[in-house]
Amino acid sequence: MPPSPLKPPTEPSRARQRANRGGERAEALAALFLQLKLYRILARRHKTPLGEIDLIAQRWGTTVFVEVKARASRAQEGEALTQVNQARISRAAHYWLSRHRAYAAANLRFDVIFLAPWAWPRHHINAFDAS
Q: Is the pLDDT of residue 71 over 80?
């Protein structure tokens, strides 16, 4: 989406830049984790007009749309799961599928991967149903 002509462009704050770098690192770790589990990464940080999908992967004929959540501790996992915007991810996934028809006939799944310092990634398979 183009920037608003009414607002002058601004630099992102340091906190926003730090959060963005942290998100990129978390998504790279989640992608590596999935690859070790024999998933093939189809797209990373895929932006659509309807929202962003962190990772799109495929394994054994199933197309998987993955939301990555990095938190400061494992205790915040439950809170992070409730913050997953399922409707946004579902809309973005269906938009992606409309552009990549070869994957539209495959089984679909929506997963969430939680990352916390000094802990193994937690992969919630089929974390929500987007039908």
A: no
